[in-house]
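Entry for the shared binder. Reason: the reviewer on the internal report wants the predicted structure included alongside the sequence.
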Amino acid sequence: MRANDSAIASAPIAVSTPEADRHAAPAPVLTPEAPAAPGVRGTPATRGVLFAALGVAAFSLTFPGTAWALEGMGPWTVVMLRSVLATVLAGGALLAFRVRVPERRHWAGIAVVAGGVVLGFPLLTTLALETSTTSHAAVVVGLLPLTTAACSALRTGARPSRTFWIASLVGAAVVIAFAVQQSGGAPGRGDLFLFLALLVCAAGYTEGGRLARHMPGWQVIGWALVLTFPLTAAGAAVALSTEPLRLTAHAVAGLLWLAIGSQFVGILVWYRGMAAIGIARASQLQLAQPLLTLVWSVLLLGERLPPAAPAAALAVLACIAVTQRARG
């Protein structure tokens, strides 16, 4: 059986015989890409929340990693090299597990993932971080959960409950107020890049979460990376020849984290989480991401933690608790 067969298993595979049952494991092994079996309804949801939370933790280090990488290389070099390195990792895994090429009907969605997650969001946020601090950028991108939930409702026809939307809007309002307080009420060019990044990333997350119901999440991002490889490889060659390059410890560590932690592993677990608990509910866990990034900004970059951060943290965490209880 190939590596991606389990995600699209057909009905006959589920048919068992008495002889097979005697040798079978006591309980079926569940994955976020497969439907839950009767009697274990809570387990996949718990795992889904865990996977999504791990994705948020990985993404919270993206901006600090980008800031480190920008210490030794230009923005285009950072974006293109992180994608090239992630493609080498993902492509190697696809070859090692002899994964079949996705069906033609899935390629449009994979292209959206590639445009939003592989290229659009990394490029726009990297350009924004040339003029914005990581703490400011993290708070603005805190609007991503609401943007993703709205995009999911439009794309998939999902209709989250009123309680869900109220809690989401309250969380978004907290994030907006925090951003305005930090920027002095005067959004700049970096904010424009960040708002555009929200839109393209929400589209990529929505399509990725939908595709993760048909194939394992790591294959979704893997094929998206492979699809963009000709462009990113050529872009990396041009960027390396035109932008300065200084391979400091920070620059190398930041680039490696972006390629491995954020671009591949983080998205892998994030898509698994979305496939298990739904795009809208998983996206609300990202309300905690800007606050985690603020902590990393202090610990790794030496930025001062804004005085309003603790209050914002409590308010955002309360919103997360409500959205996770609300039926979407």
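Summary line for the report: The mean pLDDT is 82.
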